[in-house]
Structures are given as C-alpha cells and as structure tokens.
C-alpha cells in the first residue's frame, strides 16, 4: 500500500513566495532544474498522494518568483495529453487568521491545447499556481511526466521537469447506493448496481457478480448487511430472482478495518490500495458471501471467470432503509 510522502511538508500557496535573497535555496532537489537564475526561480510539489487512476485528477502546485519586473506566463506540458478538466486554476489561495481559505485572482486567462496548459499571470512578481491533470485512458498502466516553465516580463525563462509517475491499471467508482429489494444486483465489470427490471430488460443477468440484502436476523441469528454470490441459494431463498438466473460463484473475503483506502473513504488515513494489493491476493480463505459487514470495512472479491479482482469498501450502512453506500476499486487481471 502507498502511504503519504508529504506528512511533514507545509506548502501553503501564499507562504511559498520565494525569498529572493536566497533564491538558489530550493525546497527540493534541483537536478531537473533548467536555466537557473539568481533573479528568477521556480519549484513544484505534487499535491496528490494516491495512485494515479484513469479519469481522476492529479494536482500540482507550481511556484515561481522573479526580481525583474513581474511574471508573465506559466506553462505545464504533459507527456500524454490529459482529458477534460486539465489545466491551471485562475486563483491562488491563502489562509486568513480565522483559518478560512481565501481565493486571489492571479491568472487573467488559462488555456489548455493538446498537451500544453498556459496561464497568463497578473501583475505580480511571485505566485504559486495550482495545476490539475486528469488522467486519460491512453496513460493506463504506463507513465506520465510534466515540464513546468515560466517567463517574466523581460523575457527571462525558467523551467523544470518532474519524475515519471506510474499510472494504475485499476478503475475506481465512488459512492454507489445499494438498496435492499430495489437496486441490489451488482456488476463488478460495470461497477454499477441494477434493479431486477433493469437486468431483465437490458439482458444483464450474466453480468451480476453479487446481490445485496439486509436482514436483521436470518434463521434466528444476527445477519445484518450482506453481499452474496449468485450461487448462494440459502441466503437468496427469499430474494426475487429473475428467470434464467446464472448461479455463478464470486469468491469473497471480508477485510474488517484493515484495508482502508483514502480515495474510497474520502479522507484520512492517507493509505491507498494500489495495483499490487489486487494482483497478489490468492483468496485461499474465500467464501461465497460476506454478511455482517460494517462501516469502514470492505470485501475483497474475485469474479468467477477470474477476469477481475475488486475491493468493495463500505462507506455507510443504513439499517432503517436497508441501504448500503459502497465504493469500488477494480483491476482487470492479466
């Protein structure tokens, strides 16, 4: 699993204004620095700490400062063209004495054309801009890197390059609502939940990998919220199943509070499930059900055809309405 690399780093946007008297002292190694100047300097930090996943944003902070006149432009060039949403923000941010983040307009215009994003900077000699790169399908399983550049009003230039960052092969979907007796048929391939009517009308029966149900008790024993493989006839004996139901086996192992993921949970701890976590499990102790699941727990699954391994994270359960909110990371196996 990947832990945060930046627990001890403070990188407040406005506090990052470069001290011109010691401009040569950068916060990180300058091995990738270009055109170093005692009067014009720049630096960056990767703000996003989790795995890079297709469709998800990766955020950077790019700081620059100049003694001569003022800044003119900032540029970020990605090795692979990002998808919709890639580009510089127009505001920088600072935190006031009350702890409130305050936006400051520091970019008059921001454009992204192909692999290159450009920001036209207002009349200032130091600023930190936020750059967001939304990972495209073309980068899946490969690497991506970036070149940052800045110019000032007298034509001076500085720039630097990032390392190469590995892009995950996983897919991710957050906050999918499962409802007992309504939307309770789940497809790992689709990362989606369906009603009985939908799987019949859209011929999706063969795509269902587990069924969600809520029973306070079953056969006199505490049961609760459960994810059940399509072949578990005992647990599904009071569930309305469509004709031609495919009784296939989805292998499952509960992970009670020991496999959290900040991307699925939405907050700390900054620990993440990556490709390796879904590639390695053998599921030797698997069953075809997981009942009594609770908030912040999860279930590791492998589809019957061994095509996908998935981690289902339980964001929230609702006993009153018989509902469960889940998020999923899914890896297509080689």
Structural commentary:
4% of the residues lie in helices and 45% in strands. It is mainly beta. The chain folds into 2 domains: 2-166, Domain of unknown function DUF4466 (Immunoglobulin-like, Sandwich); 171-332, no CATH class. Strands 2-14-13-5-10-9 form a 6-stranded antiparallel β-sheet, with no helix packed on it. It has a 5-stranded antiparallel β-sheet with strand order 16-26-25-24-21. The chain has a 5-stranded antiparallel β-sheet with strand order 18-17-19-20-23. A hairpin with a 5-residue loop joins strand 7 and strand 8. The radius of gyration is 25 Å and the shape is elongated. Mean pLDDT is 88; it is low at 1-31.
Helix-strand layout with pairing:
Elements: E1 2-3, E2 33-34, E3 40-46, E4 57-66, E5 71-78, E6 87-88, E7 91-95, E8 101-105, E9 107-113, E10 116-121, E11 126-134, E12 143-144, E13 146-152, E14 157-161, E15 165-166, E16 171-179, E17 183-187, E18 192-195, H1 196-201, E19 210-218, E20 221-228, E21 251-255, H2 262-265, E22 271-272, H3 275-279, E23 289-291, E24 298-302, E25 308-318, E26 323-332
Antiparallel strand pairs: 1-22, 2-14, 3-4, 4-11, 5-10, 5-13, 6-11, 7-8, 9-10, 12-15, 13-14, 16-26, 17-18, 17-19, 19-20, 20-23, 21-24, 24-25, 25-26
């Amino acid at each position: 699993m990947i832990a945060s690399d930046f627990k001890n780093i403070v990188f407040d946007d406005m506090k990052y204004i470069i001290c011109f008297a010691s401009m040569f002292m950068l916060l990180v190694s300058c091995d990738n620095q270009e055109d170093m100047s005692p009067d014009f300097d720049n630096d960056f930090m990767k703000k996003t700490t989790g795995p890079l996943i297709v469709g998800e944003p990766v955020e950077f902070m790019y700081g620059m400062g100049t003694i001569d006149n003022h800044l003119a432009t900032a540029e970020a060039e990605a090795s692979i063209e990002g998808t919709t949403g890639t580009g510089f923000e127009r505001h920088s941010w600072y935190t006031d004495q009350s702890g409130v983040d305050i936006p400051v307009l520091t970019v008059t215009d921001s454009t992204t054309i192909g692999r290159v994003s450009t920001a036209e900077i207002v009349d200032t000699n130091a600023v930190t801009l936020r750059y967001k790169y939304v990972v495209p399908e073309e980068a899946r399983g490969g690497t991506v890197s970036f070149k940052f550049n800045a110019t000032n009003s007298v034509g001076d230039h500085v720039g630097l390059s990032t390392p190469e960052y590995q892009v995950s092969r996983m897919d991710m979907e957050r906050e999918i609502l499962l409802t007992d007796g309504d939307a309770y048929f789940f497809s790992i391939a689709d990362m989606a939940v369906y009603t009985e009517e939908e799987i019949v009308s859209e011929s999706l029966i063969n795509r269902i990998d587990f069924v969600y149900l809520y029973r306070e008790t079953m056969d006199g024993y505490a049961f609760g919220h459960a994810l059940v493989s399509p072949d578990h006839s005992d647990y599904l004996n009071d569930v309305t199943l469509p004709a031609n139901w495919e009784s296939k086996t989805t292998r499952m192992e509960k992970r009670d509070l020991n496999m959290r993921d900040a991307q699925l949970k939405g907050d700390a701890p900054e620990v993440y499930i990556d490709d390796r976590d879904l590639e390695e499990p053998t599921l030797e102790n698997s069953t075809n059900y997981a009942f009594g699941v609770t908030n912040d727990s999860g279930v590791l699954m492998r589809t019957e055809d061994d095509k996908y391994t998935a981690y289902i994270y339980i964001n929230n359960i609702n006993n009153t309405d018989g509902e469960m909110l889940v998020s999923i990371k899914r890896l297509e196996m080689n």
